Amino acid sequence: MIEVSGLHFTYPTGVEALRGVSTKIGKGEFVAIMGENGAGKTTLAKHFNGLLKPSRGKVFVNGIDTRKASVAELSRKVGLVFQNPDHQFFCETVKEEIAFGLRNFGFPREAIKERVKWALALLGLTKYEKSSPFVLSGGEKKRLALASVLAWDPEVLIIDEPTIGQDYAQKEKLRHFIAQLIAKEKAVIIITHDIEFVADCSPRVIVMSRGRIVMDGPAWTVLTNHKQILKAALIPPQVTQVFIKLSDLGMPTGIIGVNEARDLLVERLLGASG
Amino acid sequence: MPLIEVKNLTYTYPGSIKPSIKKVNLTIEKGEFLILTGPSGCGKTTLCRCFNGLIPNFYYGKLSGDIIVAGLSVRECPTFELAQRVGFVFQNPENQLFALSVEKDVAFGLENLGLPREEIRERVEWALDMVRITDLREMAPYELSGGQQQRVAIASVMAMRPEILVLDEPTSFLDPVAAKTIFEVVKRFNEELRMTIILVEHRLDLTAPYSNRIVVMDKGQIKLDGTPREILRSDKAGRLGVCIPKVVKLSEALKEERVKLEQVPLTADETAQIIRRILER
């Protein structure tokens, strides 16, 4: 679906944001990109829909070289939800905001109506359909930004910091509908600092640092690699930290979930007190 | 006398029919570190806007009840006067940055207070250093990343050394290590200067250990109010959509299996210590 090879990118200001990134993301894959501020996560994501073009190296989307395709063409396939939702709103109502992209892609009127309705309901925004996007709370804006991209049903969905301002119930919903998208063979890429959310979802995790990929693998191996995680300005999940601190007592260290932690502890603790 | 007193407060934004906060009563003492949490759209940000008079002086709308902040009634006191007592870090940093350089942005509030030049310089240095952005001083805020902008916003408010610091998800764009350094700075202010902290947050795993009190709102009302341990282990908090830290969940899961920990842990450190004591007994 997405193939990146030897990607370098330097901003006009001279900041070298990407310094040799190579990776592949396939259909139906769920990937979390993590790493410190300024690591190049968002810059990389902007290459996936052609908003940025490589200074050196190549990016292919569905076999198409992004340097030879327009953003409009690419974004039909790759939907990007920005970190700061205020950056993407400009319509007068929530409903209009969602319809805008659909109209631009030339969807028929009936289909637009249906998709808007579907997206509003999916993200719990139906009651705001006639409100201005700017009166929504921070968390609601985030969901509207997502709704307006989901509506055109892209093959790849990139969400920059999806859990900001979301309460637990919203995060659970997000997790479920990402799972649904994956089941439909879509690729979902999230850029996030929310390590507990990543631990709950357990996707493939790519950790970036200073313009390079420093780790890439399943969540339970990446998130429990204490040294590397700290180097990337991340903090391991709480459960992982507990087990790392107890490793001298013979506890395993590759633990990220509450349930597996409970089972291991019940065994040891009941043994100890009984 | 409490530092902040909210009495039977109801507020409706202009153009809305339903009030965003309903009959809220809340007292906050000097030196508290309070976390305000609850589902998105529950009225947290709205309540915070009342603490420095943005509501009703800037947003207008319909307000009933009263809020007294540091002895001043918010309804009568002009915003500029309250602004010297209450510092506010907004959710979206772009809403509060406007100068052409980071340094000027941080100095702006101080210049308006009419402080002497030397003191302004000192405080700007100190604030930039606190949030580790001395190297960004010449940059224009709009050139910065979301995380960097958040640090600038925090520095410019901290430089004012307000009595009360309100922070609305101040580190949402920052990586966890950077977020932790910010919360540690805030905690130092709280302890050393007895600055009162009101922090709006969902990420209680990162922030609960710093606080002495958590207030949970839902649908414009206060639903829970207590110490972090009381709130986080309550079933109600989970039902209200509060993000319960994983170590609290773990301790609850253990309790169901009849393994009781001596107290509800708030951090990984605490959890590991408690378990270690049982294992080494």
Brief descriptors of the model:
heterodimer, A: 274 residues, alpha/beta, Rossmann fold, 2 domains, six-stranded mixed beta sheet, four-stranded antiparallel beta sheet, 11 helices, 10 strands, globular, B: 281 residues, 12 helices
Strand content of chain B: 15-25%
Label the CATH architecture of the largest domain in chain A: 3-Layer(aba) Sandwich
Discrete helix count of chain B: 12
Outline of chain A, from the CA principal axes? globular
What is the distance, rounded to the nearest whole angstrom, between the alpha carbons of the first and last residues of chain A?
A: 55 Å
What report would you give on this structure?
The complex is a heterodimer of chains A (274) and B (281). By secondary structure, chain A is an alpha/beta fold. Chain A folds into two domains: 2-236, 3-Layer(aba) Sandwich (Rossmann fold); 238-274, no CATH class. Chain A has eleven helices and ten strands. In chain A, helix 3 (94-104) crosses helix 4, helix 3 (94-104) runs parallel beside helix 5 (138-150) and helix 4 (109-122) runs antiparallel to helix 5 (138-150). Chain A is globular and about 65 Å long. The model of chain A has no long low-confidence stretch (mean pLDDT 91). Chain B has two domains: 4-244, Rossmann fold (3-Layer(aba) Sandwich); 245-281, no CATH class. Chain B is 40% helix and 21% strand. Chain B has twelve helices and ten strands. Chain B has a six-stranded mixed sheet, with helices on both faces. In chain B, strands 2-1-4-5 form a four-stranded antiparallel sheet, covered by helices on one side. In chain B, a hairpin with a 2-residue loop joins strand 4 (62-69) and strand 5. In chain B, helix 4 (102-112) crosses helix 5 and helix 5 packs across helix 6. Chain B is globular. The mean pLDDT of chain B is 90.
